[in-house]
Design goal:
13-stranded antiparallel β-sheet, 13 strands, 4 helices, single chain
């Protein structure tokens, strides 16, 4: 298994995430469902041995959010889209570009450029979120979010049954810190498709007191959350040298203590999230 990068040859990926969440606050249920789709373009601009430079572009975004029956939607791929604050935020994402330097020896992103322009666009659409966005969208955080795109296969040749693992840490300031551990098992190759099983463990830590609220209307004081994962699967096309599809499912449950206006309230949380990433030959609205 090995990624194949050809200078100037763009490939596209579709990333879909669906989150079904329920929060119980003072015996009242607050259900929420979110579905987001991002379309990314990846263009290798320099390939020198183990070092590859790629341009990542956000080509399109769709989202649907339902909070207690109140629905908000946005679709950048359609000419007529809804006007709402969240739509303005997602609209500002489209067209953003990053330059990514990838070390293919260990599938680590060593450098990522484009953050400043990205932040300017987001802050222009959401001035009140400036402090929070600057904190959660650090260069390190952006690297951590982009790296799983490539780190779905082992850094060296693997035999059927081989196992390996990878850890990531995503520090989100006043939102808290997410430590993820991915455990992989190579299940073999049939035809051009290699299959890898993946289990994901997510550990959440509440923010430090020094993190403040970052413009949020609440502060997370404490958290006891447990995650489980199932049916995680990666398929990789060994002929094209590109990801075929990856699927990760995570369940998260537990309780949070949240402070609003000086009053601390217990929140019971249950959440199911499924994320898929697949390589597509072309953008669907450009067919």
């Amino acid at each position: 298994m090995k990624w194949k990068f050809e200078k100037g040859k763009t490939f596209y990926q579709k990333m879909f995430t669906k989150t079904v969440q329920n929060m119980k606050v003072m015996n009242n249920d607050v259900p929420q469902t979110q579905a987001q789709t991002f379309y990314f373009g990846w263009t290798p601009t320099k390939v020198e041995g183990d070092k590859v430079t790629l341009e990542q572009s956000i080509e399109g975004v769709t989202m649907e959010i339902d909070i207690g029956g109140n629905k908000i939607s946005y679709d950048s791929t359609k000419e007529a889209t809804a006007n709402n604050p969240l739509a303005d935020y997602f609209k500002s994402l489209v067209g953003s570009k990053f330059t990514v330097e990838l070390d293919t020896k260990d599938m680590k992103i060593t450098k990522m450029e484009g953050r400043d322009d990205f932040l300017r666009k987001l802050v222009a659409a959401n001035p009140q979120m400036k402090s929070l966005l600057e904190t959660i969208l650090s260069e390190t955080a952006l690297r951590e979010m982009a790296e799983p795109t490539f780190a779905v296969i082992p850094a060296k040749e693997a035999a059927k049954g081989d196992k390996w693992s990878r850890k990531t840490k995503l520090a989100m300031g006043p939102i808290g810190t997410y430590d993820n551990e991915y455990s992989y098992v190579y299940e073999g190759t049939t035809g051009d498709i290699a299959t890898i099983k993946v289990d994901t463990t997510l550990n959440y830590s509440p923010p430090q007191e020094a993190a403040g609220q970052g413009g949020l209307p609440f502060k997370i004081k404490a958290a006891k959350l447990k995650s489980t994962s199932k049916d995680g699967k990666i398929t990789f096309n060994v002929k094209t040298g590109l990801l075929d599809k990856s699927t990760v499912k995570i369940s998260l449950a537990g309780e949070l203590s949240i402070e609003i206006g000086g009053t601390t309230t217990k929140v019971d949380l249950s959440q199911e999230q499924e994320s898929t990433v697949e390589t597509i030959s072309t953008l669907p609205w450009k067919k």
